[in-house]
């Protein structure tokens, strides 16, 4: 029986706990989280694909412990999150996803490649010949920030505001425990980001540019156009997902390579393995650790009786380590050709930005390998935030050699 497990030790390294989940309690009710914890790959994949498990009820379930007064106090962040695509079910999910899908086609993403290469090289040029640098603050955050600003049409000088808003909202949407302090801050960030974005929408309606936001704010041909609240939520979700996924992926990838010098040597000897290395990092140390659903009806799942309204956490990080699915799952192997991880989700909620995150990571890794003769991580050791859904180092100091 698994008891309380949400400690700083868990956040710094959840994988021993995931092993315990898989071996001892594949599906169990967590009193600590008031939710089911599901870990086996087969069940995670099935759950994320199931039509009897809702995405749209997640915010209601996650905020059920709030009093009526607290719901009023945190109404801005709750309203924002309730409009996110990932918290929608069809038909609203279908409508929202369709409106942005054209900007995330393989052709659209490929067209971004020269821009991403320039951003990467410019960031590394800024780092220059510093003796050491913080990969997170100076590179792995700033890369997706610059890409998302360009894609959306947000001035680059607002990137640190975007990070503050995204981190504040992560403290609410991705945390295991939402304290009143985190909820209050997330609500302030929701209000602040909304104020800025509403003004930006008005400017883009008057003077549109060649960017996603300009296309979204002008929906004269749409029979059911997005409201401003839906637009705000969409933009907040895009930069939240863009930052959290790619920032964590690059940081986790560099840590994995530093800790596995033999795999790094293979990569240097054969750069064609870069794509494999990105996919293996997504499996071995995913920046997204879980997705959640709410049961829409009573049902049997994984040998347990699930009641309508039960909250369910599908543990992506554990599923990617399931020995029933992956040979030598605990080993980081850049030559692994089994790209079956569920790090970008599954089913209708598969991450729409996955091709962009993969492209950014591949370009970043290639450039970092060219610039650094070795990957040496310095003290202080990486520390991870107390986030249940997201895994990324807060800082990552690297010797610049």
From TrEMBL:
- Transmembrane regions: none
CDD domains, A to Z: CYP164-like (cd20625)
GO molecular function annotations of the record:
heme binding; iron ion binding; monooxygenase activity; oxidoreductase activity, acting on paired donors, with incorporation or reduction of molecular oxygen
Q: For this UniProt record, give its keywords in alphabetical order, as a comma-separated list.
A: Heme, Iron, Metal-binding, Monooxygenase, Oxidoreductase
Q: Cross-referenced PROSITE patterns, in alphabetical order?
A: CYTOCHROME_P450 (PS00086)
The cross-references to PANTHER family, in alphabetical order and at most eight, read: CYTOCHROME P450 YJIB-RELATED, P450, PUTATIVE (EUROFUNG)-RELATED
Q: Which family does it belong to?
A: Belongs to the cytochrome P450 family.
Task: State what protein this is by name.
Answer: Unannotated protein
What is the organism field in this record?
freshwater metagenome
């Amino acid at each position: 029986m698994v008891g309380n497990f949400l400690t700083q030790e868990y956040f710094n390294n959840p994988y021993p706990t995931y092993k315990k989940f898989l071996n001892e309690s594949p599906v169990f009710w967590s009193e600590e989280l008031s939710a089911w914890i599901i870990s086996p790959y087969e069940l995670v994949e099935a759950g994320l694909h199931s039509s009897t498990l809702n995405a749209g009820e997640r915010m209601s379930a996650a905020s059920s412990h709030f009093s009526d007064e607290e719901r009023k106090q945190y109404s801005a962040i709750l309203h924002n999150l309730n409009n996110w695509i990932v918290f929608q079910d069809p038909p609203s999910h279908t409508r929202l996803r369709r409106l942005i899908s054209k900007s995330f086609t393989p052709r659209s993403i490929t067209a971004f490649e020269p821009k991403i290469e320039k951003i990467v090289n410019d960031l590394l040029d800024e780092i220059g010949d510093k003796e050491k640098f913080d990969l997170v603050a100076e590179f792995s955050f700033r890369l997706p920030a610059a890409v998302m600003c360009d894609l959306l049409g947000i001035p680059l000088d607002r990137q640190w505001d975007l990070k503050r808003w995204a981190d504040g909202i992560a403290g609410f949407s991705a945390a295991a425990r939402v304290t009143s302090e985190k909820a209050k801050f997330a609500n302030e960030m929701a209000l602040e980001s909304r104020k800025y974005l509403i003004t930006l929408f008005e400017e883009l309606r008057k003077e549109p540019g060649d960017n996603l936001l300009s296309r979204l704010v002008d929906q004269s041909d749409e029979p059911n156009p997005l409201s401003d609240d839906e637009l705000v939520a969409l933009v907040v979700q895009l930069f939240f997902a863009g930052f959290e996924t790619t920032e964590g992926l690059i940081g986790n990838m560099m840590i994995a390579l530093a800790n596995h010098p033999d795999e790094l040597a293979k990569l240097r000897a054969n750069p064609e393995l870069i794509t494999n290395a990105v996919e293996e990092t997504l499996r071995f140390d995913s920046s997204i650790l879980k997705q959640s659903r709410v049961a829409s009806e009573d049902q049997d799942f994984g040998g347990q009786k699930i009641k309508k309204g039960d909250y369910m956490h599908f543990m992506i990080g554990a599923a990617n380590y399931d020995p029933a699915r992956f040979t030598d799952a605990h080993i980081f192997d850049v030559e692994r050709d089994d790209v079956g991880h569920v790090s970008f989700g599954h089913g209708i909620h598969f991450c729409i930005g996955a091709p962009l995150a993969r492209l950014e990571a591949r370009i970043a890794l290639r450039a970092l390998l060219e610039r650094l003769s070795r990957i040496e991580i310095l003290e202080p050791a990486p520390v991870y935030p107390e986030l249940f859904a997201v895994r990324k180092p807060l800082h990552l100091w690297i010797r610049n050699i």
